[in-house]
């Protein structure tokens, strides 16, 4: 537990400031908590769209099942934008109904994370997007074939030409456009953000008390920043070891350092109401389960039923406005477009 | 071939009128063909929306993966509205990656068909919609569980209450809303329709000649009405038997009459560019293949390469404007919402 001085120091620091919050007069609780909160959590701001044409192309590609070997799996299959940017499965189902190794994280607000994937093995969204297209348990589509498919669709070639100034489609065009689209997938205006920005009425008393517990008990040590997470790698099982049958070993897979085993990117708590089940292995079915475990494993703390209810109520206030968008219409295949092969 | 006098008579009738068309002076070809065409093909008209609230609910349900046992299959998986309302697979892939028995027809303009499914076993869209939810090879979701899922989602209960005036969700509500939504999935304003409505410039000379061949050779005997099909059951293999390994026996499955074997609902040719592969078994990969076979099997006619090219060019003019719609945002699951089970 002492291996990460930053975390420990933060938790200790919070424990001190927590005392003063508890002692604050009730009428000022909201205002006082807000000042502390604002120091470590920032509201989600609406997306600034720099390249509208790239965003439109990226949206098409995000919904493009022809990027998969089977012809029926798109990014949106596992990161359903009609839901919470997830599939709500313990671990994802991909090509040929193969179960993936880990739970699919949301694409909402993922641009705010320090790195992509549970173990952070992709530096950014563009690097990330190349992965699932080719992964055997996801879309199972060799990159050369994915590029050939897009190249064979006249509507795409025209768009790529207009944006990138070339007739020759590359994987970089595909992943660049997808990444630009994903940057627009932010969820501003959650009730918690309204409260952060000064609206005392945005939260109920129960929700505010829930945030107080979240803040004071030390959750905030790891779940902070605009995403309430996503900005550091932390061990699951700081106080008590986490038991999992999942083969995922976390950050160690990237750093090859044994001491990084069980370190995962702290997931965002934004829209956490929508992103069940929880943890990298999807083993926590409900927010109640996840919060109970977090208390015990990370902080050695057992919440009372009342505390648990309040923390969960607070977490529900992190549901923001999901991006509204047109259903993209995809350009027709050309005569040479390679056909899907669901059993390959 | 004599068993259906209507078809035979129609083909004979067309053969006669065809002569006069061929003999017409070139400048009048377009106008003269149009008069004949208008007598048997009608343009697709934009949808009249009678119940906007039902349409919105139906759109949500059409995109709702929680209506499937796995939690990842929705109507839109197989009838992808970003594409041609189809999955472009030979036969669909459903729950646990099981292949379905037949090719998925488009949901675009399906409200104009006399009945639903290749064998017409559902009278209308509402009756149809109950099928795939429960079908083991599609969504594999018992109706009671599908209804329980919707009943458990507060946002849906609210909407059902507002539309149907009750708190108790039924399967009828679900299928009624889906059907109302599907009625809006029409594709007006195809270039062929613009031509039908009087715009001579909407078609190229090649396309117009293609239509002339389509008309004169007798395709129009079965592919007529606003959907260029969808309004009768016809035998595949009128002149020459169709060879298929598919177990589907067509209309006989409904009527239990042996003489109805190999009778299928004539598919619409609207948007046929987008609905590859072709036939109930998906065995024709391209429009060239489908048209060649139709000529031989249905009419005993072998097209020249030039004729084939022209007919296919004409078929491409049947691509209409696909419906533009917002991506629906689905209401969050409630605490009691049954969880998916992809391996059940
Ligand atoms: C078959 C399911 C599946 C498909 C298809 C899929 N993903 Fe994922 N996605 C996952 C899973 C599972 C992870 C977590 C993998 C890991 O961390 O090792 C993930 C991780 C991500 C992440 C990282 C988020 C974060 O915060 O770490 C992003 C971004 C993402 N996917 C975007 C995409 C895009 C873009 C596509 C399409 C090109 C796509 N995904 C296709 C299942 C899928
Ligand atoms: C020492 C760092 C740390 C602390 C303290 C901490 N967490 Fe976490 N939290 C994590 C990590 C790491 C994960 C991901 C673990 C995994 O998936 O294996 C996580 C996951 C979660 C999840 C699941 C999110 C998801 O989408 O899967 C919830 C909910 C959560 N934490 C809430 C809390 C609460 C509430 C507290 C305080 C009681 C807390 N956390 C304290 C690091 C921490
Ligand atoms: C797993 C793939 C799959 C799913 C999921 C699916 N369908 Fe289908 N659909 C098919 C296939 C295959 C057929 C043809 C079946 C037949 O004719 O026997 C079909 C036929 C239809 C038809 C008939 C069209 C016509 O002209 O005959 C309609 C309408 C339809 N589906 C709507 C829906 C709706 C609504 C849902 C969701 C509730 C849905 N489908 C889910 C594959 C699917
Ligand atoms: C006697 C009736 C009849 C005639 C004449 C006829 N068709 Fe068809 N057509 C059908 C039937 C029935 C099917 C569906 C067969 C099946 O799927 O088993 C069909 C299917 C098709 C398809 C595939 C559509 C799809 O979505 O699968 C095309 C294309 C087509 N016809 C074009 C033509 C052309 C071009 C002609 C003239 C050369 C023609 N048809 C003549 C009855 C007819
Ligand atoms: Ca999750
Ligand atoms: Ca087809």
Automatic annotation (TrEMBL), chains A, B:
<keyword id="KW-0349">Heme</keyword>
<dbReference type="InterPro" id="IPR004852">
    <property type="entry name" value="Di-haem_cyt_c_peroxidsae"/>
</dbReference>
<dbReference type="InterPro" id="IPR051395">
    <property type="entry name" value="Cytochrome_c_Peroxidase/MauG"/>
</dbReference>
<keyword id="KW-0560">Oxidoreductase</keyword>
<keyword id="KW-0732">Signal</keyword>
<protein>
    <submittedName>
        <fullName>C-type cytochrome</fullName>
    </submittedName>
</protein>
<dbReference type="InterPro" id="IPR036909">
    <property type="entry name" value="Cyt_c-like_dom_sf"/>
</dbReference>
<dbReference type="Pfam" id="PF03150">
    <property type="entry name" value="CCP_MauG"/>
</dbReference>
<keyword id="KW-0479">Metal-binding</keyword>
<dbReference type="Pfam" id="PF00034">
    <property type="entry name" value="Cytochrom_C"/>
</dbReference>
<dbReference type="InterPro" id="IPR009056">
    <property type="entry name" value="Cyt_c-like_dom"/>
</dbReference>
<feature type="domain" description="Cytochrome c">
    <location>
        <begin position="53"/>
        <end position="161"/>
    </location>
</feature>
<dbReference type="InterPro" id="IPR026259">
    <property type="entry name" value="MauG/Cytc_peroxidase"/>
</dbReference>
<feature type="compositionally biased region" description="Pro residues">
    <location>
        <begin position="325"/>
        <end position="337"/>
    </location>
</feature>
<feature type="domain" description="Cytochrome c">
    <location>
        <begin position="205"/>
        <end position="319"/>
    </location>
</feature>
<keyword id="KW-0574">Periplasm</keyword>
<keyword id="KW-0408">Iron</keyword>
<feature type="region of interest" description="Disordered">
    <location>
        <begin position="323"/>
        <end position="344"/>
    </location>
</feature>
<feature type="signal peptide">
    <location>
        <begin position="1"/>
        <end position="24"/>
    </location>
</feature>
């Amino acid at each position: 537990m002492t291996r990460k001085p930053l975390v420990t120091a933060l938790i200790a620091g919070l424990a001190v400031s927590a005392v003063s919050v508890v002692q604050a007069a009730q009428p000022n609780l909201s205002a006082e908590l807000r000042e502390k909160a604002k120091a470590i959590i920032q509201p989600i701001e609406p997306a600034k769209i720099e390249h509208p044409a790239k965003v439109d192309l990226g949206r098409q590609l995000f919904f493009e099942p022809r990027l998969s070997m089977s012809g029926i799996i798109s990014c949106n299959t596992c990161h359903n934008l009609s839901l919470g940017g997830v599939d709500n499965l313990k671990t994802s189902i991909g090509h040929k109904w193969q179960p993936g190794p880990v739970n699919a994280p949301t694409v909402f607000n993922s641009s705010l994370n320090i790195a992509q994937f549970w173990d952070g093995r992709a530096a950014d969204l563009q690097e990330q997007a190349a992965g699932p297209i080719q992964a055997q348990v996801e879309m199972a589509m060799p990159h050369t074939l994915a590029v050939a498919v897009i190249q064979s669709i006249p509507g795409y070639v025209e768009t790529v030409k207009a944006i990138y100034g070339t007739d020759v489609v590359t994987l970089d065009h595909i992943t660049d456009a997808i990444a630009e689209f994903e940057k627009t997938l932010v969820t501003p205006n959650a009730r918690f953000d309204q409260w952060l920005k000064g609206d005392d009425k945005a939260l109920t008393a129960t929700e505010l008390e829930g945030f107080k517990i979240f803040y004071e008990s030390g959750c905030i040590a790891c779940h902070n920043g605009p995403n309430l997470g996503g900005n550091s790698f932390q061990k699951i099982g700081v106080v008590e070891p986490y038991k999992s049958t999942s083969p995922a070993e976390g950050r160690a897979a990237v750093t090859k350092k044994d001491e990084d085993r069980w370190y995962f990117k702290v997931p965002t708590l934004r829209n956490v109401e929508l992103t069940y089940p929880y943890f990298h292995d999807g083993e926590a079915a409900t927010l109640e389960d996840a919060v109970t475990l977090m208390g015990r494993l990370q902080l050695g703390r057992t919440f009372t039923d009342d505390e648990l209810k309040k923390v969960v109520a607070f977490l529900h206030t992190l549901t923001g406005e999901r991006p509204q968008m047109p259903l993209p219409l995809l350009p027709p295949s050309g005569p040479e477009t390679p056909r899907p092969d669901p059993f390959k």
